[in-house]
C-alpha cells in the first residue's frame, strides 16, 4: 500500500529557527536552495574523544551583533567534509546531527560547524535539510513566525529595554 504524500510546509527565504536540544529558541537562518548542506555559527571548535569516539565542542552565538546568550555545545562527529563556500573557498568542517525546529516542525538535520561572523545569518539551511518537506517561497520571509520584538532587537545588537 502506498503511503500518502507528506504535505510540504512553505517557508520563506529567511526564518527564525530553534535548536531545542540546546535551549536556543531563536536563531535567524537563511534558507538557501543553492547550498547542499546546512551550517551553524560555532566558534572555538575543538575535537575531543569520548568513549573512544570523536566528538566536537564549541560555542554557539545566536545573535548577529552580540556575544550575549552564547551556549556551549557538544556533538558526536558524524563526518568531516571539505565544503566549498559561495566565494569558492574550500574549508574542512565537522558534520554533526542536530534537531532543529523550523516553522513549527522538528527535524534532525546534518549541520556543518563553522565561523559565520562575516556572514549575514548565524545559520544556513541547505537543500538536504529542506528535503524534510519544506518548500521555500523566495519572495517571503518569516512564514514560520517572527521572534518577539525584544529578541529581534537583541539580534540587531540593541540592548533590551528595562522592565
Indicate the radius of gyration in whole angstroms. 16 Å
Q: Could you tell me the number of beta strands? A: 11
For the termini, the CA-CA separation is 58 Å
- Unreliable spans are none
Secondary-structure element order, as H and E? EEEEEEEEEEHEH
Helix tally equals: 2
Q: What does the main sheet amount to? A: 6 strands, mixed, barrel
Which range best describes the helical content: under 10%, 10-25%, 25-40%, 40-55%, 55-70% or over 70%? under 10%
Strand neighbour order, sheet with most strands: 2-3-10-4-9-8
Shape: globular
Arithmetic mean of pLDDT: 88
Structure characterization notes:
With 163 residues, this protein is mainly β. Helix content is 7%, strand content 50%. It has a six-stranded mixed β-barrel. A hairpin with a 2-residue loop joins strand 8 (90-102) and strand 9 (105-114).
Please provide a brief summary of the model.
The chain is mostly beta strands and 163 residues long. Helices cover 7% and strands 50% of the residues. The chain contains 2 helices and 11 strands.
Q: Which key features would you list for this structure?
A:
mainly beta, 11 strands, 163 residues
Sequence-ordered SSE layout with sheet pairings:
Layout: E1 9-12, E2 14-19, E3 24-31, E4 38-50, E5 53-60, E6 71-76, E7 79-84, E8 90-102, E9 105-114, E10 123-125, H1 127-130, E11 134-137, H2 149-155
Parallel strand pairs: 1-11, 3-10, 4-9
Antiparallel strand pairs: 2-3, 2-8, 4-5, 4-10, 5-6, 7-8, 8-9
